[in-house]
Amino acid sequence: MKTTFYKNLKAFTLCAGFFSLAACKEKSIVKPDLIPPVDNIHTFEVKDFNMTVNNLYYDSIWTNDKDYRIVSIGALSNDPFFGKTQAGLYIQFLPPSEGFAFPTGTIIDSALVSLPFNNFKYADTASNSTLSLKAYEITDPFALGDGTRKYYAFNRVSYKPTAIGAKTFTLKSLRDTVPVFRTDTIGGLLRMRLSDAFCEQFRSMPASATATNASFLDFFRGIYLGPDSTVQQNTIASFALAGASTNLLYSGAQMEFFYHTSTNDTVKRALFPYNSLLCSFFNGIYHNYTGAPVQAYLSNQQASRDSVVLQGYPGFRSDITVPIDPAAIPPSIINKATLTMTVLKVGDDARFSAPPQLIIRGVNDNGQERPIADLLNGDDSTTNTSGAAFVGATAFPVLIGGSTYLRYTFNIPREFQKAVSAGQTQLKLRLIVPTAYQGAYRLVADGPRSANTDTRLSFNVIYTKLN
Fold this sequence. Notes:
Layout (H helix, E strand, L loop, with lengths): L9 H4 L29 E4 L5 E7 L11 E10 L3 E9 L14 E18 L6 E8 L27 E6 H5 L1 E5 L2 E4 L1 E5 L2 H8 L9 H7 L3 E5 L6 E7 L13 E8 L2 E10 L7 E8 L6 H5 L7 E5 L3 E9 L8 E11 L16 E5 L5 E3 L15 H5 E9 L2 E9 L1 H9 L4 E7 L9 E5 L11 E8 L2
Antiparallel strand pairs: 1-25, 2-17, 3-4, 3-12, 4-11, 4-15, 5-10, 5-12, 5-13, 6-7, 6-11, 8-9, 13-14, 16-24, 17-23, 18-22, 18-25, 19-20, 19-23, 21-22
């Protein structure tokens, strides 16, 4: 399987209130008065499941989907458990029109690359937190072509070693309103000035370079905008390539040129936009786990583990296998089936936070993922609009031994009912960090064999025997 991108679950997975977890409460999905009391005659409870956990690394996330033009840029330099992450954008631009030419005698005063800020940030999120970036000219001809080629987070394309731009931004500056041209004032933009040599390259480009869109993309193959690898930083921010502003001139990614001529001092502007129909782009996201504790999970992914390890794609997902013993759970009505998982403290957890919500999927015997039954209507083919609220899977705080921990509860009685009714001997579930913001969020949770009963991964079932 080459791509798993849950962009259709953005609303499901991102709750606005997550960052004030103290105000969140555990969702009571199944009302207590609807679950029959356990009498050990007709209704029984089972708590001890010999579950197994496998943590799998997944890097095949497709990041040039032109229908989802949100990208992550930045770096996490020193996550104590997950090591280092770098995220950058490869992108192409086009001139204002085919055949465009700067007037004779043009003097380019400045050139900039700009991207609309999407207001999401991860790790260091204070207003004065910084994002140090550099821009490079791409040398690889990664043109969109017929649009069928897919680029993934692990892909790379070559670029010139000398940067054509560099700037350190504060998160506050990405939100601030700034003047951009004459009376234009725009907020929410990343704007990086490009070098004088870059300006000269465009001032002196031959007419043949802009004769057609294809000839321009051969002349200038695009920009890689990524983190400055010489700077220690811990911020990933999200940017939109299109449709991010009510100001049409600055609603998408583009290069800006400000120029005048030797005979006219009036400054003019030329915009070279990203065009979703003609330009290629992708989001490269690269991890370096060397020396980090998570490296042990990467090197032996087949091992059964006693910790659940999750990271925003590209990263780790976890498969949890729940055995079903017919002697313990005969054919019956499943009243309750709840998986409970508690997040451990592995270092700098406030900065490198867990996601506000997780995705839970079923896994068939052939390894193919599928939606769990509790998210579907009775026909098991259409999505139940209240399914997400029913399943839960949102993070909520719990107090254990005087310390606050995060916990997730997954309510999946229909999924477990299907497995029991089908006579299955096990149910395999997959936990995934939402992919709405690539490269963000991570967690390590306690496993099923932990000595700590307060944080141990648990599965609880209440069933009523069939007469």
